[in-house]
Design goal:
Residues 82-92 have a biased composition (Basic and acidic residues). By secondary structure, this protein is of the alpha/beta class. Among the domains are: 114-230; 264-438, Rossmann fold (3-Layer(aba) Sandwich). It is 32% helix and 16% strand. A five-stranded antiparallel β-sheet has the order 4-3-7-6-5. A five-stranded mixed β-sheet has the order 9-10-8-11-12, with helices on one face. A two-stranded antiparallel ribbon has the order 1-2. A hairpin with a 2-residue loop joins strand 5 (157-164) and strand 6 (167-177).
């Protein structure tokens, strides 16, 4: 069966160069528009191989997934069953649940809310500067250093996700050689947008890529950008902040067993989680623990920065939890995406975040982060966190299982038995690990003897000895003050 597409007809602002126009037999170009999907595609719902995305308020934004070894079964998520049963009581039997959840997802569906569109250029005398923007009165101070990352002169194209105040941005950068002594042989520009949420920004990447090429070839041609802004500008509440940045927990918790909304994939159509896992290998288990502990994680890499922004997003996905109430009292795990020295003041007040940078000077700013990631090297200057950088026996076992599940998924895909993807597998794997831990903690906390034993720790999928320090950090961060730790766990 064919999947429904989230592509839409071109609007007036969506100009396609003659060389890029598809022929009659080619697939239509990826282009945003008003004719968006209003509900999840139903053809994948029966397989249980996909699920809706998360917002960063209760776990970072991103798609959720199902397990590769259960492509034709529904993954068990005990934490959502009670709420789902209540919904079913009011909406008939289980056969009507699909339609009910789909209706809830339609009502929640995030809308286009573009609050600004802008052009940034590099001037050989003054450096990065804001060339043009709409609306004219919006505060874009500093966006010129986010839309053109430090060191971008070494690359020809790039894309950058970033935060600007309470908004998220996506900018596409291009560097074109020119025969101009005034421009020192190169013209560099970036075209970007701002929105209250990052989950739909990917839909405009193709448009931004085309527009930045247009700006390089014909500087000052802003009419497509003006038409785009008029079509997509946000209708925000008076405060400009009361907006939905992710699917409400009571919706995606019930919908996890159903079909995933394609618009929730930040990297659609290209996945990034599988590349993320392969890049870090076993070290992904270290990042998983640090993300679950809501630590401040800073990732360094030279340009291009686009793929590193995806690593920020993937780090956030490692900390997804779908059990209602868990994590409410802990700091939000904020994705800052790309940052530069102008963000130092903002980072000083952040208790938990994930960000990336191209500026090596941040490595010396040890008070701004807890964990520094350079290539595959994960390090920390916090003595209390250094033991967490060592893999436990349970970490290696989990990674082995993850690798096995991936191989089973690839085998199923080769035989046409499963429509799930590696993205589905990886994200749900960590979601289930997190749910398993907090479900076990909740059961122990509610028992007559609230003591964590070796058996209860193993039930969480952790190593009673190797993960003891991680568990103690977890109890402290998530406020499990009433739980006692057995003396057996003190023996290393």
């Amino acid at each position: 069966m064919m999947e429904r597409s989230d592509r839409a007809p071109l609007l007036d602002w969506e100009e396609v160069p003659p060389a890029e126009k598809p022929d009659e037999t080619a697939a239509p170009p990826t282009a945003p528009g008003n004719d968006r999907l209003s509900s999840p595609p139903s053809n994948r719902g029966s397989s249980g191989c996909a699920a809706p995305g998360f917002g960063w308020s209760s776990g970072p934004g991103g798609p959720t997934t199902s397990r590769s070894d259960a492509c034709n079964t529904t993954p068990a998520i005990p934490c959502t069953q009670e709420g789902r049963d209540k919904d079913v009581e009011h909406h008939g039997d289980l056969g009507s649940t699909d339609a009910f959840v789909e209706d809830r997802m339609v009502k929640w569906e995030e809308k286009d809310q573009i609050v600004s569109v802008f052009v940034v250029t590099f001037n050989t005398r003054t450096g990065n500067m804001l060339e043009w923007c709409l609306p004219k009165d919006i505060d874009l101070d500093g966006v010129e250093f986010k839309a053109i990352a430090s060191g971008s002169h070494r690359v020809t194209t790039d894309f950058i996700y970033f935060r600007k105040g309470s908004y998220f941005g996506l900018a596409c950068f291009a560097n074109m050689p020119v025969e101009s002594t005034a421009e020192r042989g190169a013209r560099m520009k970036s075209v970007g947008i701002l929105s209250p949420s990052y989950t739909l920004l990917y839909r405009y990447m193709s448009f931004l890529e085309h527009q930045v090429r247009l700006q390089l070839q014909s500087p000052g041609h802003y009419s497509p950008l003006e038409a785009f802004y008029e079509d997509k500008r946000a209708l925000l509440p008076p405060s400009g902040e009361a907006v939905v940045t992710g699917c409400p927990a009571n919706v995606w918790g019930a919908a996890i067993n159903h079909s995933m909304h394609p618009e929730m994939k930040i990297t659609h159509p290209a996945g990034c989680m599988s590349q993320f896992i392969r890049f870090f290998g076993e070290q992904i288990m270290v990042l998983w623990k640090l993300a679950l502990l809501r630590r401040r994680i800073l990732i360094f890499s030279p340009p291009p920065v686009g793929v590193v922004c995806y690593r920020v997003y993937c780090c956030c996905c490692l900390a997804n939890i779908s059990i209602p109430g868990i994590g409410v009292a802990v700091p939000e795990f904020r994705p800052f995406f790309y940052i530069n020295v102008a963000d130092i003041g903002a980072l000083e007040n952040e208790l938990s975040y994930v960000a990336c940078t191209t500026e090596k000077i941040f490595e010396e700013k040890k008070d701004l982060y807890d964990v520094y990631v350079d290539n595959q090297n994960v390090k920390t200057c916090r003595d209390g966190l250094k033991p967490l950088l060592r893999l436990s026996a349970a970490d290696r076992e989990k990674y082995r299982k993850l690798t096995e599940q991936r191989q089973m998924l690839l085998y199923s895909q080769e035989n046409g038995d499963c429509v799930s993807s590696e993205e589905d597998l990886f994200i749900l794997f960590f979601l289930e690990q997190n749910n398993r831990i907090f479900q076990a903690l909740g059961e122990v906390a509610g028992s007559p003897d609230p003591t964590l034993t070796q058996e209860s720790v193993r039930a969480m999928g952790l190593d009673p000895h190797g993960d003891r320090l991680f568990l103690l950090h977890l109890l402290e961060v998530y406020g499990y003050d009433t739980l006692l730790v057995s003396e057996q766990l003190c023996c290393s």
